[in-house]
Design goal:
alpha/beta; D-Maltodextrin-Binding Protein, domain 2; 8 helices; 15 strands
Length: about 250
């Protein structure tokens, strides 16, 4: 009887050890973070290093470092990114994602980390458009599935032309194929700043929006970690540092 009890105790210890080992491995799994690397200065592929860099990439790396999370940045097209997070194909996504009530029905969102309302961009020689009120009768570009595209559809008389990536919209604008682009203010500032004076923004930011990290809706624990890390790095002043590095436009 004594030996039988010893065997049982040994078996229990082994099972507990295996369970603890499995938990440890689970907690150390790499977190897959999706991003659409076509939104400079938030995320884009550096021509020299071929690596994905930008405001969002620096931010999520800082959050991961604060929380001791190992992450993998996964490049994904925009539509597939939103669908992938909604279906938990990816653990999370950071990609200049505006927090909306509709998106929050299928995914979790972190606390907001930057304000990013919509603004109108036009060619510098265009005197007919001074803001969203002047877009009636105009062909206006935006990346498909973005809040910019949604806002254009809400403007009576404006004709929406969608693009797979926002840079194609700005290229068409420069080439005279469309009359304006509506996009997130920080991204618009970046494209305008790199246009050698060909593009300008007009009017004021006309929506109230914020970016957040999107998280699979089955992983509230990861959301808590991301929020904890985000609050920590924000309290250390990281957001102003990233704004100065990535969003400042040279005169």
């Amino acid at each position: 009887m004594r030996n039988r009890n010893l065997y049982i105790l040994t078996a229990v210890v082994v099972l507990l050890s295996l369970a603890l080992s499995a938990c440890s491995q689970s907690s150390n799994q790499t977190v897959r973070i999706a991003t659409d690397a076509t939104w400079p200065p938030f995320e884009y592929v550096d021509e020299d290093s071929k690596e994905i860099i930008g405001f969002d990439i620096d931010l999520i790396n800082a959050i991961a470092a604060d929380q001791g999370i190992e992450i993998e940045i996964v490049p994904v097209e925009w539509d597939a990114l939103l669908a992938g997070v909604s279906q938990c194909q990816y653990d999370a996504a950071i990609s200049a994602i505006t927090i909306t009530a509709e998106r929050a029905e299928t995914m979790l969102f972190s606390d907001p980390y930057i304000n990013a309302g919509q603004i109108v961009a036009i060619t510098a020689d265009n005197t007919a458009i001074q803001g969203p009120a002047d877009l009636a009768g105009m062909v206006v570009g935006a990346q498909i599935g973005t809040t910019g595209a949604i806002e254009i559809e809400n403007i009576d008389g404006a004709e929406l032309k969608t693009y797979d990536t926002v840079d194609l919209a700005y290229l068409d604008l420069i080439n005279g194929q469309i009359d304006a682009v509506v996009a997130d203010y920080p991204t618009a500032v970046s494209f305008v700043g790199q246009s050698n004076g060909q593009l300008i923004t007009v009017g004021e930011v006309f929506t109230d929006e914020s970016y957040g990290v999107a998280v699979c809706n089955e992983n509230a624990e990861l959301l808590d970690q991301i929020n904890a890390g985000l609050n920590a790095v924000m309290s250390e002043g990281l957001i102003p540092e990233l704004e100065a590095e990535w969003l400042a436009v040279s005169e």
